[in-house]
Design goal:
Aminopeptidase; about 500 residues; Leucine Aminopeptidase, subunit E, domain 1; 6-stranded mixed sheet
Length: about 500
């Protein structure tokens, strides 16, 4: 998208569509009232007939201006209550505007309300990138994607410098989130561990990141037995990915972000029912989010060293598949009794987190589509957060609110630890059905040592079975914006 500053009055600006904002309960005022007057009261009639009151994220469209203005159509977007109006509302306004206009409009003009304060352009533009997203790669009927190409921001106070800075940030965040969506939406026949590693290498080359990729031999040499066990039933080779972003100046801190990269999960020998298996191409959403974050960092230039780690393989039922009652020795030497082969994500993460702990990072955060139990507890739209460090957890929760991604903290309840105590090994990979998201996190805690660590279970919000107001059907890109805001305060 190309962004420019519009100097003309909104009645004269030339574009396919004009977007004007309306605060809840405010009615038609300011630019909205001025445009309504130019259109002979058509906007007022539309708003009243639709009983539209400016609710956040809602919109009504006037399909034609009847030649009375320079734009062809007008979209009135709700901005919610005046008291809570800010960047979150503007991001939603951008998403809604793009979704409503992406097929009909190549150019969109926005009224001054959307850009008259610092940070507003970044939030709106980010929403436009997110809302314009579609995944049509494998359709053969000629269905095109978004037409959006030109964005006009009408504002007397917006400078070219602020426009370039804020839209540049928005592009980095939006394109990285959309990359994650693409990765999650790819069919598993194409999105194999090998392919995921190739994409990681491309991100590293493009952004000047350090890149190490371990194949089966190196995984074996390093003693990553968790990854080896889970991949043993598949004919696809595993990959362990290590990307490193180095700032241009001495880093203020080193952090590690870790992603679960199961490119397809059949459940292994404890095989899933057919309906539960159907969407398991998304079981690498945590890994995809890590790659999305790493893609954005060179453009955002934080003064922090970031290690992006991905453990990737398939969980299948081939003749060499690992079995219930097996005992696995993880990378840090701890032994794991296998209770359920469908609790494989935590097993591959045991190696990745142990590796992260060796990097002497100040903080470790992992992202994983880890448990159905988290969906039962929090629903489809909220991720679960569990942490051994209250300060780190607080930073992530605050970042999630700024990013517009819903995360709720669950306790690491000591009384549940007995659920994963093993009679034959140090720990077992599954407990009872009670508190399953928490006991899964407690399992992971065994592999981070004393490092402050947080686990984000994004099993619910990483993939949407149906399109929502603010996200597409399929991969949502959940986690990228929270991680970038947590580290960068964007």
């Amino acid at each position: 998208m190309k962004f420019i500053i519009g100097k003309e009055n909104i009645k004269k600006v030339k574009a396919d569509a004009l977007v004007l904002g309306m605060l809840k309960g405010e009615g038609l005022s300011g630019d909205l009232k001025e445009m309504d007057k130019a259109l002979g009261g058509e906007l007022k009639t539309l708003v009243e007939s639709e009983k539209f009151e400016g609710e956040e994220g809602k919109a009504v469209l006037l399909g034609s201006t009847f030649g009375r203005a320079g734009v062809k159509r007008v979209l009135v977007v709700g901005l919610g209550a005046k008291r809570g109006f800010g960047r979150a509302a503007l991001r939603k306004a951008g998403i809604v505007s793009a979704k409503r206009l992406r097929k009909s409009s190549a150019s969109i003009a926005f009224g001054p309300r959307f850009s008259n304060k610092p940070g507003y352009v970044k939030a709106l533009s980010e929403g436009l990138y997110l809302g314009a997203y579609e995944f049509n790669k494998y359709k053969t009927n000629g269905e095109g994607g978004s037409r959006l190409s030109g964005i006009i921001l009408s504002s007397d106070g917006l400078t070219e410098k602020r426009l370039a800075t804020e839209t540049g940030l928005a592009r980095a965040v939006g394109e990285s989130t959309n990359l994650v969506r693409d990765l999650v939406n790819e069919p598993p026949v194409y999105m194999t561990p090998t392919r995921l590693a190739e994409i990681a290498a491309g991100i590293a080359e493009e952004g000047g990141l350090k890149c190490e990729i371990f194949g089966p031999e190196e995984i074996d040499r390093r003693g990553m037995r968790g990854i080896q066990a889970v991949t043993s039933g598949s004919d696809q080779e595993p990959r362990f990915i290590h990307l490193t972003y180095e700032p241009s100046k001495k880093p203020a801190k080193t952090i590690a972000i870790v992603g679960k990269g199961i490119t397809f999960d059949s459940g292994g020998l404890c095989i899933k029912p057919a309906d539960s298996m159907r969407t398991m191409k998304m079981d690498m959403a945590g890994a995809a989010a890590v790659l999305g974050v790493m893609k954005a960092l060179p453009a955002l230039k934080p003064r922090v060293r970031v290690h992006g780690l991905v453990a990737s393989c398939e969980n299948m039922t081939g003749p060499g598949a690992y079995k219930p009652d097996d005992v696995i020795r993880a990378y840090n030497g701890k032994t794991i009794e296998v209770i359920n082969t469908d609790a494989e994500g935590r097993i591959v993460l045991s190696d990745a987190l142990s590796y992260a702990a060796e990097l002497k990072a100040a903080e470790i955060v992992d992202m994983a589509t880890l448990t159905g139990a988290c969906i039962v507890g929090l629903g489809l739209y909220t991720a679960g957060l569990m942490s051994n460090d209250a300060k780190l957890a607080g930073k992530i929760l605050e970042a999630s609110r700024e990013a517009g991604e819903k995360i709720w903290e669950l306790p690491l309840d000591d009384e549940l630890r007995a659920e994963i105590k093993s009679d034959v090994a140090d720990i077992k990979n599954a407990g009872s059905r009670w508190g399953g998201a928490i006991t899964a996190a407690m399992f992971l805690e065994n592999f981070v040592g004393e490092t402050p660590w947080a686990h984000i279970d994004l099993a619910g919000p990483a993939y949407a079975e149906r399109e929502g107001e603010f996200y597409p059907k399929g991969g949502t890109g959940f986690g990228v914006r929270t991680m970038l805001d947590y580290r960068l305060g964007l």
